[in-house]
Amino acid sequence: MHGCRIRIGTQALVLAAVVGAFFVNTPVAARQLELGVIQGTVTDEEGRPIEGAVLKLRDPDRGRVYEIKSDKNGKFYRRGLPPVEFEFTLEKDGYQTLKDKVQVAAGRDDRRFDFKLVKAAPQGAEEFVKGVEAFKTGDAEKAVAFFEEAARKAPEAPEVHVNLALAYLRVKRQDDAIKELETAAALAPNEPRTLFQLGGAYVDAAKYDKAAEALEKGLTLQPDLSDPLAFESSVTLGAVYFAQGKIEEAIARFEKAQAVKPDAPGPKLGLAKCAFSKGDVEKALKLLKDVVATAPGTPEATEAEAFIKALEKKDRPAA
I want to staple 125 with a disulfide (CB 3.0 to 4.6 A). Which of 105, 121, 294, 318 is the partner? Predict the structure, then answer.
């Protein structure tokens, strides 16, 4: 009996020691779990903070997921995490998703994780780049195919439709080009360059009313004729007015362009045509000869020479 009591007592002592160890160690472990911390920043490639980036930490053993968002300064902070190796993803719209693993240490709040996110390539970007390359090398058909695929993947990107239109013009698909430029103008209604290109396409299709509307709107948005495309569009609008029989509007538009570039042949040629239409042949001839003298070899000079010959032949007395 005595030996048995001793054995029982020994087991009780051992059990008490185990239980004591459990209750002594548990608060320490709990504290360590509570002190598991992750903190840091999220920035872009230029070091600017990214707000609203979502960091998702997944505990692979327990399957639990923790989610943290960066603030307006790109900073994130979370404590109370188990000290394990997490699988994580870092996501933000417009940026490439970052995936990796990260070890969260217990009892430490001095370790920082600074992440950089790279801009994500938009849908259709690869096809767009290939289309540009094909266009530059003169393979317009291939450019059309690439730009069509880019437009399918990124239908809301106006620049894709503009480039597809230019490729269509290169392969003589004028109606398709106009449709694409109309789409681009609808997507970006305040982009003057798109309106200038649309106006030019309408001119080529002899749709003068629509051409005037597009060019006028574009020049309202970009009235500074020191911009080369705005200057060219201003001269084109003068020509459209002339074709519509709006001679005074045409003169005003040509004179505006000439004031910016006095030696440019386009406005002079336009003013010569306007002078002739008003019966001032002498002024028309003077302007035409000035075009030939100051801009030899240009298309405007070639047209002026033909015009001069026609006028001189008309004035020459019959034999």
Answer: 121
